[in-house]
Design brief:
The complex is a heterotrimer of chains A (194), B (340) and C (797).
Chain A lengths: L3 E8 L2 E8 L4 H8 L18 E4 L2 E4 L12 E3 L4 H7 L7 H9 L8 H14 L5 H7 L11 H15 L7 H4 L5 E2 L13
Parallel strand pairs in A: 1-5
Antiparallel strand pairs in A: 1-2, 3-4, 3-5
Helix pairs in contact in A: 3-6
Chain B lengths: L7 E3 L4 H9 L5 E4 L5 H6 L7 E4 L9 E3 L5 E4 L4 H6 L1 H6 L1 H8 L4 H6 L2 H5 L12 H6 L28 H7 L3 E6 L2 E6 L19 E7 L6 E8 L10 E9 L5 E9 L6 E2 L3 H5 L7 H17 L10 H20 L9
Parallel strand pairs in B: 1-3, 2-3
Antiparallel strand pairs in B: 4-5, 5-8, 6-7, 6-8, 9-10, 10-11, 11-12
Helix pairs in contact in B: 5-9, 11-12
Chain C lengths: L28 H5 L15 E7 L5 E7 L1 H5 L3 E6 L23 E2 L5 E7 L2 H10 L1 E6 L6 H6 L8 E2 L2 E2 L4 E9 L2 H6 L3 E9 L11 E6 L5 E5 L4 H12 L6 E4 L15 H13 L3 E4 L2 H7 L6 E9 L5 E11 L7 H10 L10 E8 L15 H18 L3 H7 L6 E2 L5 E2 L4 H11 L2 H4 L7 E11 L14 E7 L5 E5 L8 H13 L6 E5 L16 H28 L6 E4 L2 E4 L2 E7 H12 L3 E6 L19 E12 L6 E11 L6 H20 L29 E9 L14 H4 L1 H13 L10 H9 L9 E2 L8 H4 L1
Parallel strand pairs in C: 1-14, 12-13, 16-17, 22-23, 29-30
Antiparallel strand pairs in C: 1-5, 2-4, 2-6, 3-5, 7-8, 9-17, 10-15, 10-31, 11-12, 11-14, 15-16, 18-19, 20-28, 21-22, 21-27, 24-25, 25-26, 28-29
The chains are: A alpha+beta (194), B alpha+beta (340), C alpha+beta (797).
């Protein structure tokens, strides 16, 4: 019954050969055989989406994909986005990664490799998604830090920049000035520095 | 990480090869399609096969076709995402397209298959748990134990059919083609189910679900699916309702069907719904009254148990609401009915 | 290094900030975005073993015997340890050490740790767990806190730190400020009500993980997904009886915490001991189920409140009685019990106040500090009752909050010093942005708006172990390349504290933002910081960072002034350059300025630190909850209630939060949005509870219903900057305060929408429907001596 398979996988454009038992998932092979630790494990069993990778361009859960069944498919992990962007003539991170960083969408960052891959796949098929389409496309990726707002803004910013339009301003920026309040110190009350 | 138990993986290329692998008397084999139900269940120690027979490479199971007689045929390995997006499915079987579009989340619809959802294991809050968890309370009737924690003293497992596709297919009078050691056979999807939560299908151990066939629907066919769940995504149904209304040329309902899921071990047809709805005219008061009567009837007949997580009393209260809303959505050519 | 340095709240160079206040990238953002960031489970060491824990299947039982011989005999199993191997008890609060890494003599909840195995892989370790034989003698399990309070036997804990426990009472605090009974007697309206708050948990997406390695000469290194490196360091030394200098604790990138990783946990001790026993690195990664058992989440509370008010809306007194369900261990429970009362005394002026809080042990996963530790539950109860006071008195709910505003530069009834207080501005912003004046009362039945206010601490001057050393330390190293490396013990748990440190250094030393490297949360490399809890890091580490920078800045400026032969006051360090403000052509890159300074003063480095001033009331417990500065928040929540299904949707929520100066508004907005989301989530969808067997009802991310992207509405974050005299450049906390008001504002919005007062969380659809059904009945908030008639929205329309 114990069987080790030699798998030929195509990961981030590279053909790699790796040995793994049949009961190993793609996530385990990526993380613990290939060292592609960007794919995360959050829930053990397909409930959270942290392990999302692209298989033939579509987001799937690598924790519920048997590694052997990924043979013959194109697997893209989070580590594959920047090299692909550079290979297309871009500089630095993929625009999705860059926008997530700029917009504050990466707090703990643990769910975000999966989230960004879902977002990348969405933008590949729908370059100018509505908020509703973004929400639908990311509905299999749980985030615990952001409340999703800055994630939505990041995806919208990628689309806006691609279209050459100004991205919408976050609420805090609109109310920035209204929120300024002089301190008690400035008004000359006690609490002064020693 | 929660681990899969060891098994050997087989990758047949034809249904016949798969059937042969399942028939091997020396090795316990299970079919795996998308793996989105079976693999979590295996991680929970609910299944420990020697062999997993993957249908991934069986190309004949993937086609969606409409034949000359208007039958819509969907191969068992067609992904849920493909089913939901297929214009032929949307046009000919709207309740099915709607139901499938609400299964779990985007990744699982890309991975999961229609065949896998039809064959979904029943679910229960006392069953879909880890081995440690289940062992801590002495297991249950469905797996490894003798006691039912849902029904005190219960001898029959009441784990709930939780597949959104099932009521939709029943409302469409679909057929399923299966292949086993004895060859192929066809049965109405209605006849697929048993009222036994331990294993609620009548398929034999060695049989493979090949495809689902939806008969041509009446010209005035309208269908919808309603799903109650806590979140807008990911969750299994707390209640699912599929409705079919065939509206005749005269504007009156000529035929109708109503089937619910996530209540008992098998999907449940609401008896009397057809009789009450036939003859009523959508858009007129008679229809609204008929719908109310069906909703009341469903409320009386359908009693959710505390099998799936959450508040059974609340789910009971939602039966008439979801029945009514789904019927009204069907009549308007709308749906799905979902809280978002 | 004193209570507070004298660096002021203004920009370090002239009038304007160059870095602070900008929405800049995070120091680790691109590493996280590209998959390069390393988290605990990403640590892979040669020859590493994998460890697993055997857990109790009983909620309460005596351990009769443990036989691990069969497990040890399995091929590939390298070690098995039990409670006998780690007999020393610990606890994050040194007054209540009641935990063992592995159970000694008895188990106290389903999931309590009993034994640990290290094996060649996880499958083998799991097989070994199955082979361990444990005989238990079950004891009566307490699942209901009221029963635990009323029933002294069997005791869940007999004694803690040598002191006998009274029955099953974990902690009791009763404090009164002013004469509450007299104040209530003098009120025009007194409301009395019962409220309850259910359990919820943090559920960070990263499960707990720890890796230990022991060098040939006995040095122990632990990588752990912890938010309290320093306390883990201390606890390891204590439990392993190892000198602290033999231990190094490192927090890699952390995949979320929210208070759920702020205790020392069994896995940290187990991997350490197993690494010692086997001579090999050992990793333990918990399953999601185990994370639910580790818990330390929100304490369920049953609360009775009385609130007296004058007819003009002014509060006369508040009286609270609270029963806290602590679960099976103390954790932070001593502090929780104080916080349940101590943190309610703002932003409103309470002329008198009393609380009586009792935390009991039960045989459930231990509760602890979840975001907004201890004060989210009472805030819910009070703000809902206060809303009802407004309703009874016919006062606009925002207006009554204005009327009772305590002001800034003041003191609370329980002796806490309030410095800056931007609460009124917070109210103004949420009122305006939500369209409150135009829309409230004009929305159709089923839709409504609700408001709530709150306050929270920016750290506390109560370090969990008494000492006179600083709470936060910083070390700076300047390199000839122009790079500044900052060493901080602060735990960046995703909130961005390392980015705050980077921003301050770039501002102070005028170096380019990306010339600042941050090395954090490594006990060998970094000066001590107490950790990421009580919303203390930006405030305390931020102040320490300024302190360290000013020392170096002085050296650089002095050296440059000497070299240029100008008055040092003419030197500026800004945006990567040093220049003479009166002769701007005289300029060098900061790199060269560093070199000049290094030549003048030798190798450049500095330290900085922060400790809190003496604060708090002069009574037992008066320092718990005493913070150098408080944040203030106002929420308006809009709801859309489907009265047929009871499903409550939140199309929009507005949160204005006074965080003092916003050092990075993108990060502040992220904290406001994440907090508001988390509060609404636990109110509407989430529940951490046990079934009749004491088993967690659904320890998975399927059954624990965290919102998906489809379950959130628009969350509008607004920042109020009431520059605080105590904070770094005037900054205060932002990570926990903005959770509090979201829940009562939701409850108040539901009342506005459908006329039903919900006093018991969670607001599941079933609860809402039952409340609607019972609407005609007399509510619990029955007025005593009411002078105003209640009008429900239904009647009003």
């Amino acid at each position: 019954m114990r069987r080790m398979r030699s798998l030929r996988l195509k990961v981030n454009g590279d053909e790699v050969e790796v040995g793994a038992p049949d009961h190993w998932t793609l996530l385990e092979v990526l993380r613990y055989r290939l060292g592609l630790i960007g794919s995360k494990q959050g829930c053990d069993k397909g409930d959270c989406g942290a392990c999302t990778v692209l298989v033939d361009g579509a987001p799937v859960l690598s924790c519920l994909t048997l590694a052997a069944l990924a043979e013959g498919r194109e697997v893209t992990t989070i580590e594959g986005l920047m090299p692909a962007h550079v290979a297309r003539g871009g500089a630095g991170a993929d625009p999705v990664q860059d926008a997530f960083d700029r917009c504050g969408a990466l707090q703990c960052g643990f769910c975000q490799p999966g989230m960004m891959l879902s977002a990348r796949a969405l933008l590949d098929r729908t370059p100018f998604p509505t908020r509703e389409e973004i929400q639908q496309a990311l509905a299999g990726n749980l985030c615990r830090c952001t409340g999703y707002t800055q994630i939505f803004q990041a995806v919208e910013q990628v689309a806006a920049e691609a279209a050459g339009i100004e991205p919408a301003e976050p609420t805090w920026a609109t109310y920035r000035e209204a929120g300024q309040q002089p301190s008690p110190r400035a008004r000359g009350v006690k609490g002064e520095d020693a | 990480m929660l681990r899969l138990p060891r098994f050997a993986l087989e990758r047949p290329r034809t249904v016949a090869e798969a059937v042969a692998l399942l028939a091997d008397p020396d090795r316990e084999a299970l079919l795996v399609a998308g793996g989105t139900d079976l693999l979590p269940n295996m991680k929970h120690g609910l299944f420990e096969p020697d062999v997993l027979v993957s249908l991934e490479d069986v190309d004949e199971l993937r086609a969606v076709e409409v034949d000359a007689d208007g039958w819509l045929s969907i191969g068992a390995m067609t992904t849920l995402a493909d089913v939901a997006a297929d214009e032929r499915v949307v046009a000919r079987a709207p309740a099915l397209a709607q139901a499938v579009s609400l299964i779990s989340g985007p990744q699982l619809r890309t991975m999961g298959t229609l065949g896998g959802n039809v064959m979904l294991d029943t679910r229960c809050q006392w069953y879909n748990q880890t081995y440690f968890w289940r062992k801590s309370l002495g297991f249950c009737l469905k797996k490894d134990g003798t006691v039912c924690h849902v029904v005190a003293g219960g001898r029959k497992c009441v784990a709930a059919a939780s597949n959104d596709s099932a009521p939709a297919l029943m409302s469409l009078s679909a057929l399923v083609d299966v292949e086993g050691p004895e060859g192929r056979r066809t049965l109405p999807v209605d006849d697929l189910w048993l009222a036994d939560g331990i294993w609620n299908k009548k398929l034999g151990k060695g049989e493979v679900l090949v495809r689902v066939r939806v008969p041509p629907q009446a010209a005035g066919h309208r269908g919808a699916y309603g799903k109650l769940r806590d979140r807008g995504s990911i969750d299994f149904p707390l209640l699912g309702v599929a409705a079919r209304l065939d509206v005749g040329d005269d504007g009156a309902v000529a035929d109708a069907d109503l089937v619910a899921v996530a209540l008992a071990a098998r999907p449940v047809r609401v008896r009397g719904a057809r009789e009450r709805l036939v003859g009523a005219r959508p858009g007129e008061a008679s229809f609204r009254e008929a719908v109310e009567a069906v909703a009341d009837e469903a409320h009386r007949r359908l009693t959710p148990l505390e099998n799936v997580p959450g508040d059974a009393e609340y789910r009971a209260a939602m039966v008439p609401v979801y029945v009514r809303r789904t019927l009204l959505a069907a009549a308007e050519g709308a749906g799905p009915v979902h809280h978002l | 290094m004193a209570a507070r340095d004298n660096h002021g709240t203004g920009a370090p160079w002239d009038d304007a900030f160059r870095v602070v206040g900008q929405p800049l990238r995070k120091v680790d953002g691109l590493a996280k975005a590209t998959g390069q960031a390393l988290y605990a489970d990403d640590v892979q060491l040669p020859g590493m073993l994998h460890a697993k824990i055997l857990r109790s299947p009983h909620a309460h039982a005596r351990i009769v015997s443990i036989d691990a011989s069969a497990a040890l005999a399995l091929p590939g199993v390298h070690a098995v340890i039990t409670g006998a191997d780690l007999p020393i008890r610990y606890g994050v609060i040194p007054w209540t050490p009641d935990e063992n890494a592995l159970a000694v003599d008895k188990v106290r909840f389903v999931g309590d740790e009993v034994a640990a195995v290290a094996a060649v892989d996880e499958d083998t370790a799991n097989a070994a767990l199955d082979a361990i034989e444990v005989e238990y003698e079950p004891l009566h399990a307490f699942l209901d806190p009221r029963e635990a309070l009323a029933t002294p036997e069997p005791q869940i804990h007999a004694d803690i730190r040598g002191k006998p426990v009274r029955g099953n009472v974990s902690k009791h605090v009763e404090l009164e400020f002013g004469d509450v009974e007299a104040a209530l007697a003098g009120a025009d309206l007194v409301l009395e009500g019962e409220y309850s708050f259910h359990g919820s948990t943090h559920a960070p997406i990263e499960p707990h993980c720890a890796v230990a390695q022991v060098s040939a000469d006995g040095l122990l290194t632990l990588w752990s997904s912890t938010q309290i490196t320093h306390y883990v360091h201390r606890a390891l030394a204590q439990v392993l009886e190892l000198a602290p200098e033999r231990i190094r604790v490192i927090q890699p990138c952390l995949g979320g915490a929210f208070g759920g990783k702020s205790d020392p946990f069994a896995l940290e001790f187990c991997v350490a001991l197993l690494a010692q026993r086997t001579g090999r690195p050992v990793k333990m990664l918990w399953t999601r189920e185990e994370v639910f058992y580790a818990h330390r989440g929100r304490h369920p509370m049953q609360m009775q409140y009385r609130c007296g008010a004058k007819s003009n809306g002014r509060i006369t007194g508040v009286d609270a009685r609270i029963l806290i369900d602590g679960g099976s261990y103390s954790s932070f429970g001593l502090v929780t019990t104080y916080y349940s009362g101590q943190l309610l005394t703002g932003p409103y002026d309470f002329p008198s106040y009393r609380f009586d809080s009792t935390r009991v042990f039960t045989n459930k996963p231990p509760c602890g500090p979840k975001r907004g530790h201890g004060s989210v539950q009472p805030r819910f109860a009070f703000e809902v009752q206060f809303d009802e006071v407004a309703e009874r008195l016919g006062i606009d709910p925002i207006e009554i909050r204005r009327v009772n505003f305590q002001g800034d530069d003041t003191q609370t009834v329980n002796g806490q010093r309030i410095t800056s207080n931007g609460f009124l501005r917070c109210l103004d912003l949420v009122e305006e942005a939500s369209g409150w004046k135009q829309r409230r009362g004009q929305l159709p039945y089923g839709r409504g708006l609700g408001v709530a206010g709150s306050m929270y601490i920016s750290g506390t001057n109560y370090p969990v172990y008494p000492n006179d050393m600083p709470q936060a330390g910083i070390q700076l190293k300047l390199d000839r390349s122009g790079v500044v490396t900052v060493f901080t013990g602060g735990n960046d748990i995703g909130q961005g504290s390392n980015t705050v440190v980077r921003s301050i250094v770039a501002e102070e030393l005028g170096v380019a933002y990306d010339h600042v490297r941050v090395v954090a949360a490594d006990t060998d490399l970094c000066p001590v910081d107490l950790g990421a809890y009580s919303s203390r890091i930006t405030f305390m580490v931020g102040n320490a960072t300024i302190d360290a920078c000013r020392k170096l800045r002085h050296q650089i400026v002095t050296a440059l002034a000497e070299a240029w032969e100008v008055d040092p006051r003419r030197i500026r360090l800004m945006e990567g350059r040093a220049f003479d403000v009166e002769d701007p052509d005289r300029t060098v890159p900061t790199r060269e300025a560093f070199q000049v300074a290094e030549a003048r003063f030798d190798t450049l480095g500095s330290t900085g630190s922060y400790n809190t001033p003496q604060l708090g009331g002069d009574y037992r417990g008066g320092t718990i909850g005493a913070s150098p500065a408080y944040s203030f928040t106002a929420h308006v929540v809009e709801v859309d209630v489907d009265v047929e299904t009871g499903i409550v949707r939140v199309p929009a929520a507005w949160c204005a939060h006074d965080c003092g100066r916003a050092l990075n508004p993108t990060l502040v907005a992220g904290q406001i949005e994440g907090s508001t989301y988390m509060g609404l989530a636990e109110a509407l969808l989430e529940e951490h509870g046990v079934n009749r067997f004491g088993l967690h009802r659904g320890p998975s991310l399927l059954d624990y219903r965290m919102p998906t992207s489809l379950d959130v509405g628009d969350i509008h974050a607004m920042i109020v900057e009431s520059v605080d005299p105590e904070g770094p450049y005037g900054a205060k906390e932002a990570g926990e305060g903005p959770l509090h008001g979201s829940i009562p504002a939701l409850a108040n919005a539901i009342h506005d929408a459908i006329g039903v007062r919900l006093r018991h969380l969670p607001f599941t659809p079933g609860t809402v429907l039952r409340a609607l059904r019972d609407q005609g009945g007399k509510g619990e908030g029955a007025a005593v001596g009411s002078t105003a008639a209640a009008t429900s929205k239904r009647e009003a329309r």
